[in-house]
Design brief:
The complex is a heterodimer of chains A (651) and B (179). With 651 residues, chain A is α+β, with helices and mostly antiparallel strands. Chain A contains 19 helices and ten strands. In chain A, the strands form two sheets. In chain A, strands 2, 3, 4, 5, 6 and 7 form a six-stranded antiparallel sheet that branches. Chain B is α/β, with parallel strands linked by helices. The chains are: A alpha+beta (651), B alpha/beta (179).
């Protein structure tokens, strides 16, 4: 009964989405206030029914209703209740439902918080969001219904993929989706403004906090995914450049470019059509990522069973949504003029460079991700694009980006005026370089060119970011949220750079075969396999090792890596043992039983790896602080207020 | 490019992308590399992993059925399937050659020492040229080559005992089953 209620709620939500988009768009076109009101009200209806559908599916999981195909496929009576709930989004159908719920949530938030927007514009935004909802509901109802019954019902479920039975991975999808889907707001704002054919700074100021919010979630989501891969896959890697990761990283790059170009559009009325294109692209890339991941067109061999009907549906949907938006862009963008000029070293130039480098990285990653597909489609054979390509094409634009980032923050709008900060910036650069060389030599015992470049850039970005709030505080000025947020986020970029440089330059990874009592030494740390025992969890059995780590005879810690075999079957899972430290992680994962009491172990010394995720959180925090800046919350009906706001924040 | 055409560029690129996706979707992912099946195995002669002075080639095992397993130390699936490969080697029905793909020689040798070596010989293909000839899509992949030198089967992804029993053993039996 409950699953049928869920199914029915989904149909109702589709109807509400139709009402929302039709009355939203047609009402705005015809200037009918009542129609626009109907469109707005439908947003609430849509959200309520999607939430009911979601609750129904969650209830079916919690109640272990194995007569529902999706529940039977993705859970098991032994699965702890927390994971049974999280299993809702453990596979395709439920992920889509979560997508739809996020979209309905964002739509509701936009509707509730946009009362100061011009009424027609607001109605168009709501209508466009409704169109996207229609696509997702139809997709679910026609090809991926999570409420399909299984006849006869299964006695026992197959179980949730054990890789997903982990805390970080249960919260990773909702946060990531909030980010993905959140870009739909910027997309809808962009399309609505293209429909109207004019763009003012108020538009940019409206779009900024929404973009920041989505971007913040995406940042955290990506960081969580990376952290999970690190400790759960048993490899100790933190980024693999696989298509699924790229699918989340490309919208992030577009979103990052967008928040920067939005600033220029708001403050200076420049880059208008470019900003709109980025607003459209960020969400388009989210959809594209969904298509790539869900259709199996790319990840064919590694993906779950795929269904061509799903791929075709998403493709049609992509064509309508992205193609429609880009057609609108081609039609309207020429009418958007940006006529202000700026000098070479003005802040505008730096944002331009920022965008150029970010988009270059994005395009190269897109190319690498799709290249195998192109080659295949043209019958040129199968190729594989591996991490060496991605590392290279990402590094090349990132080095100048970081270099310019440190200067660009201090540039002023319109004019080349870097003279006042020049000596201090040079000082930071010199100090950064000196510290990079000395610390590199002192801590890691050697000076490597790439490591020195990386550390210097990291310290340069961190120092340069700190300079802004410090200078303000010293002058006794308040630090507005936007400035503080920018400084924190950029500081975070430096921290991420620090972590990546440290771990990529000085990591030590070794695979060893040990019997109980044996010791292996890496990076000056002695890893002794002290004991092996059997362990038991709620739905798995495991072999657990005690790996005692000591340095110079002094014991540091005992790691307890596990090799788990879930009762529901499948491949054994690796739970790494990790000792977290401010300067390095020590990592041990159990490999295979080699017989005669010997096990293969993967031992790793990972310097500074924590700073990758810490930096990512700082970036997100900065985004949050900037998004909560007071001026976004002020009523924005009047355009003249803009100039005041702009003048106020210009430094 | 003329200025008034520039706004059309994004949609033109997108249209091209869609065409590729449509073509891509027509391809059945489970039969990715059928072109090679039934055709003579692409010839290669590469340095041996453990000794650059020695050559390992597709002719080494000619005249009887053999396996070619594509692997690399950076490949997670290779690690997972390694136990199965050792098992297959222990059975001794059919010799297995390794193709070490886009890898680091010392890491790869270390891997074999630590995890055990199921291969009769390993060809070292750091640039992936041979792998392209063989249409390797991603590691791990395992090919079965018949006594007549033709490719009989290709397993994309991890080799498991079940896949071995289901897909490889019947083909091997038809070949006379090895020793």
């Amino acid at each position: 009964m409950i699953p049928e209620i869920g199914h029915f709620a989904l149909v109702m939500a589709l109807l509400f989405a139709m009402v929302q988009s039709f009355f939203g768009l047609a009402g705005a076109a015809r200037g009918q206030a009542a129609w626009m009101g109907a469109g707005r009200s439908a947003v609430t209806g849509q959200f309520v029914f999607v939430a009911i559908a979601f609750a129904a599916l969650a209830w079916s999981f919690i109640q272990k209703d194995f007569s529902v195909l999706y529940v039977a496929t993705n859970s098991n009576s032994e699965l702890p209740v927390f994971f049974r709930f999280a299993a809702v989004w453990g596979a395709h159908e439920g992920s889509l439902l979560l997508w739809a719920l996020c979209l309905a949530g964002w739509s509701l938030a936009v509707t509730a918080l946009s009362s100061s927007l011009q009424v027609r514009f607001r109605s168009r935004v709501i209508g466009i969001l409704g169109l996207i909802s229609i696509g997702f509901m139809l997709f679910m109802l026609t090809t991926s219904n999570p409420f399909d019954r299984l006849v006869p019902a299964a006695l026992e479920g197959k179980d949730l993929n054990p890789l997903l039975q982990d805390f970080a991975l249960t919260i990773h999808p909702p946060i990531l989706y909030l980010g993905y889907v959140g870009f739909s707001v910027a997309f809808a704002f962009g399309c609505a403004t293209l429909l109207e054919g004019r763009l003012d700074s108020a538009w940019a100021r409206w779009t900024r906090p929404w973009t920041l919010a989505a971007w913040l979630f995406l940042t955290v989501g990506i960081a969580l995914g990376s952290w999970w891969a690190y400790y759960e896959l048993g490899w100790g890697g933190w980024w693999f450049w696989d298509p699924v990761e790229n699918a989340s990283f490309m919208p992030w790059l577009a979103g990052t470019a967008l928040i920067h170009s939005l600033a220029v559009t708001e403050k200076r009325g420049l880059f208008k059509s470019w900003t709109l294109l980025l607003a459209v692209s960020a969400f388009s890339l989210s959809l594209l990522g969904t298509f790539l991941v869900r259709s199996g067109v790319l990840v064919s061999v590694h993906a779950f069973a795929t269904d061509p009907a799903r791929g075709l549906f998403i493709l049609a949907f992509l064509t309508v949504v992205i193609g429609g938006a880009l057609a609108l862009y081609a039609w309207r963008a020429p009418q958007l003029k940006s006529n202000a000029g700026f000098e070479l070293a003005a802040r505008e130039s730096f944002v331009l460079f920022n965008n150029a480098f970010l988009v270059a990285a994005l395009c190269l990653i897109l190319l690498g991700t799709l290249y195998p597909l192109f080659m295949d489609a043209m019958e040129l054979g199968k190729v594989s694009v591996g991490p060496p390509y991605f590392n290279m094409v990402f590094l090349v634009p990132m080095v100048p980006l970081l270099l310019l980032l440190g200067i660009g923050m201090h540039a002023v709008w319109k004019k080349s005026r870097l003279q006042p900060v020049r000596s201090r910036l040079l000082g930071i650069a010199a100090a950064g370089f000196a510290i990079a060389v000395i610390a590199g030599a002192a801590v890691y015992g050697e000076i490597r060119p790439m490591a020195t470049i990386g550390f210097t850039l990291a310290l340069w970005v961190m120092g340069s970011s700190l300079m802004i709030p410090l200078a303000r505080l010293r002058a006794g000025q308040a630090v507005p949220g936007a400035v503080l947020g920018m400084a924190i986020a950029h500081f975070g970029v430096g921290v991420v750079t620090l972590g990546i440089t440290g771990v990529q330059s000085f990591k030590i990874e070794e695979d060893v075969a040990l019997a109980v009592g044996d010791t292996a030494t890496i990076g000056g740390y002695d890893f002794r396999l002290a004991a092996l025992r059997d362990a038991r969890g709620p739905n798995y059995v495991a072999v657990e090792a005690d790996v005692v780590i000591s340095k110079d005879g002094a014991e540091i810690t005992t790691l307890r890596p596990q090799k788990r075999l879930y009762n529901s079957g499948g491949n054994p899972m690796t739970e790494a043992g990790i000792q977290v430290g401010p300067g390095r992680d020590l990592f041990a994962a159990l490999g295979e039983d080699l017989g005669q009491g010997r096990w293969s172990l993967r031992l790793q010394y990972k310097p500074l790896i924590r700073y990758i995720w810490l930096g990512a959180l700082l970036i997100a925090l900065g985004g949050g602080i900037a998004g909560l800046d007071r001026r976004y919350r002020r009523a924005t009906a009047a355009a003249p207020g803009l100039e005041r706001a702009a003048a106020e924040v210009t430094r | 490019m003329k200025k008034n055409l520039r706004p059309l560029l994004p949609i033109a690129l997108f249209a091209g992308l869609i065409v590729f996706f449509i073509i891509g979707l027509q391809k059945d992912p489970s039969r990715i590399d059928s072109p090679l099946i039934g055709k003579p195995a692409p010839a290669f002669a590469l340095e041996a992993l453990d000794n650059p002075a020695v050559q390992v080639g597709s002719g080494d095992l000619a005249g009887r059925p053999w396996l070619l397993n594509v692997w690399a130390t950076w490949c997670g699936g290779c690690r997972q399937e390694h136990t199965t490969l050792l098992e297959i080697a222990r059975e001794g029905r059919v010799p297995m050659m390794g193709l070490n793909w886009r890898d680091d020689r010392s890491l790869a040798l270390q891997w074999l020492v630590k995890l055990g070596n199921p291969y009769v010989s390993v060809a070292y293909d750091p640039e992936g040229r041979t792998a392209i000839d063989w249409g390797v899509y991603g590691a791990p992949e395992t090919f079965l080559i018949g006594a007549d030198g033709k490719v009989l089967h290709k397993q994309i992804g991890i080799m498991t005992a079940e896949i071995w029993r289901r897909d490889f053993l019947p083909l091997l039996a038809a070949q006379g089953g090895g020793p």
